[in-house]
Structure formats: structure tokens, C-alpha cells
Design goal:
9 strands; alpha+beta; 464 residues; four-stranded mixed β-sheet
């Protein structure tokens, strides 16, 4: 076993016996999570027997010989309830019938295969096609709806559909919980997914995805879905069939502590089944001649087992292997190119989206500023100076202003004009008198009558 796994196992379980930690990891096939689950389940049973032993010794004062007898008897009880990992592995060994059935299933599955090259090309085409035509993501839809409805969830809800999540859970060696959500269940869902013990058990032992109760979503689930919100637990068995491990209706006032314990029991049984199936696969994949030599060795223990010689590959098979490797390289290259193309398109879409959002924000901010300036503009007087504004778009706008108004009022008025009259409404502008040449940007605090003395008509250029 990997030293880090043994150390992590001992640290998490508080097990001080390194040999026992190594045995549990061996029994779980090197999977740390399964080893810890088996240890916690089996050791908890053993603690009950040890407590019974202590109570028996304390309540019955007997001599040393009798105490030794009780100790030996309780040890036998403890060993029968909590056997060591080597004994558990021996007891959980699959029988020959299970191995034969699995081997027959694998052979039938291979017989239906269309051939390696044809199947690989078809699979690659389907995969690349799926990259460009995404299937509906019901998991993300439900997760976003829970967020909108302010349902706080302390577990990681996966994205995707049912099949994808079931395969992902299988690769993670975990059962899959499917949570069916109703719109009128938000308050209870908030309580369930905030329960510390329950969410901790789900996070450590399960993958979970949430779906809304809709016809197109429920038809993907290969089991009868209850009428109420519920947890449905699935796995893929040894023969690639979907197995329902449990269904729990989330009724009002459900005991969440008890639900957590039931989920732990399901995970413990899942671990045992997983180890059993891995042993079946391992036994079924052994060459037949090795079993034959082991049987001969059993009947003749003094005859040493002959080490089998590796079979020589014929030239045609070698050529086929080379072709397969070259095909895999080409597929990997096509896959990488497709991913890069998708990544580049996503980057372009994100950049365009950010630009559009920025333009939208600027437009909203500009409209707000215009509304504020428009409400603060003084009313147009009946008498005063009439000013013609020449806009960057070659359009013109005329308005009268009081001589007692400040030059800033002219800038505010131009700022309120429609965007199409500017080259770029987000860029600053200046007001310029053509003759005599005069820039008003630095004279905004002066009065109009002071700048344009004895004048009743003026022309200003809006310069950007």
C-alpha cells in the first residue's frame, strides 16, 4: 500500500495499528474511502461486543481463572462479530457460479462488438459530434432554480443529465443520489440541505444531482418516481444494469438523523458489493490454464507450478496492434483540436458578451445622467441669446438661453441630446466658437452674458 494512504487512514479513523490499516486498504483494493467505510462499519460492531465484555467483568467479581475464561469467551464473541479483514475477504469471496455468469456476459458483449477500428471511429465521431451539440443540462437548471428561490444547499449538486451522472458516480466508486424537487418544497428543501450530519454523509459518500419534477426530466429516470419529493439512489451493477439501492420520500417532519444513518448503511452495503464485484472481475480475467495448474498443485502439493510462457503474437496481430496505436494517436489529435476549437469559440463568445454588457452598462449610466441633467436644466426663456449647435453628425440644434445662465448649462444641454447626434456618445466633447476662435471648456463657471457680450445669436461647434 502507498505509505500516504496508510497514514491518512490512521489519521482519519484514529486507528493505531498500522498492520490493521494496511489490511483494510488491501481489502478495499487500495481505495482509501472504501477502506475507511468498511473500518467504521465493522469496528463499530466490534465496540458493542467489547463494551459487553467490560460490563460482564465489572458486574461479576470472580477469581483469576474465571476472569480468564470470561476474557477468552468474549474474545470469541468479538472475533465472530468483527473478524479480521483477511477473514472478511475470505468470507466475501465470490462463488464459481458468479464468476462463470460474469465471464459469459463479457464474452457475449465482445461477440456483439462491431470490431475495434469500426467501433473506435464511430465512437470518436459520436463524441466529437456531442461536443458541438450539447444535451440538455437538467442538473444545472434545477440547481440555478434552487439558487433563485434562495434555497441554500451545503452539498455539491452535479450538472448534466441522469446517464452522465450515473457513469460519473460509478467512476468515483460512489452511489448516485437523484433529488426530485417540487416548487412547493423550497422551505423543507432548505432544512434538509442545511442539516449538518446529513449533508456531511452525502458529501463524503455519494454523488448527488437535482432534477425538477417535469415530464421530460422524469422520463430519463429508469424507475418509478414517487409523487412527493424524494431521494432515489442508483448504481451500475456487474452486468451494466441500473440497480435501485433505495427510495426515500422526503415527507414533512422526516427524521433527518435516521435518514443519514440509512444512507450510511446503503453506502456500506455498496462498498461490500463493489469489493465482491471487483473480485469477480479479477477471477474471471485470470487465464484458464492458471486455474488448471492450481488444481493440479492442490492434488499434488509437491509438484511445483510451471510458470506460463507468454504467447507469441503472430505478424498479423502485431500489425493490427500498430494500426490500432496509430489510430488512437490520430483520434487523440482530433480530440485535442476539437477541444481547442471549442475553447476558442467559447472565448470569443465570452468576450462579445462582456463587451455587450459593458455597452449596456454605459448606456444605462448615460441615460440616467441625461435624465438628471434634463430635470436640472433651466426653462427656455422667451428672450435671451439664441445659440445654434453644430453636432458631429452634421445635424443642428437651436435653443435660447438666459444671459444669466452659466456656460455649464450649454454643456448640460448638449449632453442631453440624442446619442445618434454624436460620433461616440461615451466620449467627452468641447464647445468651440469658430470666429473669433474660442474654447468654452475652461470657462464653464462664467456667465453666458459675460462670454458673449452684446450678442443675441451665436454658433457653437460640438467638437469630439
Amino acid at each position: 500500500m502507498v505509505p500516504n494512504q496508510v497514514a491518512d487512514f490512521m489519521a482519519i479513523t484514529n486507528c493505531n495499528d498500522q498492520q490493521k490499516a494496511d489490511q483494510y486498504l488491501q481489502m478495499a483494493g487500495g481505495n482509501l474511502e472504501n477502506a475507511i467505510a468498511l473500518y467504521l462499519e465493522l469496528e463499530s460492531q466490534g465496540q458493542v461486543s467489547r463494551q459487553a465484555s467490560v460490563q460482564t467483568q465489572n458486574s461479576n467479581p470472580i477469581n483469576e481463572q474465571g476472569r480468564q475464561f470470561v476474557q477468552d469467551y468474549n474474545t470469541q464473541i468479538f472475533n465472530s462479530v468483527n473478524p479480521p479483514p483477511s477473514v472478511i475477504r475470505q468470507q466475501s469471496n465470490p462463488n464459481q457460479q458468479q464468476i462463470v455468469e460474469y465471464k459469459k456476459y463479457v464474452e457475449e458483449k465482445r461477440a456483439k462488438d462491431d470490431g475495434f477500428i469500426k467501433k473506435t471511429i464511430s465512437g470518436t465521431f459520436s463524441f466529437v459530434k456531442s461536443l458541438f451539440s450539447k444535451s440538455p443540462d437538467y442538473g444545472t437548471e434545477c440547481r440555478e432554480k434552487l439558487i433563485q428561490q434562495k434555497v441554500k444547499v451545503d452539498v455539491k449538486l452535479e450538472s448534466g443529465n441522469f446517464d452522465d451522472n450515473l457513469k460519473l458516480a460509478q467512476s468515483n466508486m460512489r452511489p448516485l443520489i437523484v433529488y426530485i424537487h417540487d416548487d412547493n418544497f423550497n422551505q423543507q428543501a432548505h432544512i434538509i440541505f442545511q442539516h449538518p450530519q446529513l449533508t456531511s454523509i452525502i458529501t463524503k459518500n455519494f454523488n448527488i444531482v437535482a432534477f425538477e419534477r417535469k415530464p421530460h426530466t422524469l422520463e430519463l429516470i429508469p424507475a418509478q418516481v414517487p409523487a412527493r419529493p424524494c431521494f432515489m439512489i442508483f448504481r451500475i451493477d456487474l452486468f451494466d444494469k441500473i440497480d435501485v439501492l433505495g427510495v426515500f420520500e422526503l415527507v414533512q417532519g422526516i427524521d433527518l438523523d435516521q435518514l443519514g444513518q440509512k444512507l450510511k448503511q446503503i453506502k456500506g452495503q455498496y462498498n461490500k458489493t463493489y469489493i465482491m464485484e471487483e473480485q469477480i472481475k479479477k477471477e474471471a480475467n485470470k487465464p484458464a490454464y492458471i486455474h488448471q495448474q492450481q488444481q493440479e498443485q492442490f492434488f499434488n502439493p509437491y509438484q511445483p507450478i510451471q510458470q506460463p510462457q507468454p504467447p507469441q503474437q503472430p505478424p498479423q496481430q502485431k500489425q493490427r496492434v500498430v494500426e490500432q496505436r496509430n489510430l488512437i494517436k490520430e483520434q487523440d489529435l482530433a480530440y485535442q483540436q476539437a477541444l481547442e476549437q471549442i475553447k476558442l469559440e467559447e472565448q470569443k463568445k465570452n468576450a462579445l458578451k462582456r463587451e455587450q454588457e459593458q455597452q449596456q452598462q454605459l448606456q444605462e449610466q448615460r441615460q440616467l445622467e441625461k435624465a438628471t441633467l434634463m430635470s436640472n436644466l433651466p426653462n427656455e426663456p422667451e428672450q435671451g441669446i439664441e445659440i445654434l449647435f453644430r453636432m458631429p453628425s452634421s445635424q443642428q440644434k437651436t435653443r435660447r438661453f438666459a444671459l444669466t445662465d452659466k456656460i455649464q448649462v450649454l454643456f448640460d444641454f448638449v449632453q442631453c441630446l440624442p446619442d445618434e447626434m454624436f460620433d461616440d456618445p461615451n466620449q467627452p466633447f468641447n464647445l468651440i466658437q469658430n470666429f473669433p476662435r474660442l474654447s468654452l471648456r475652461e470657462r464653464k463657471d462664467e456667465l453666458i452674458g459675460q462670454v458673449f457680450e452684446d450678442s443675441l445669436n451665436e454658433q457653437l461647434i460640438v467638437d469630439q
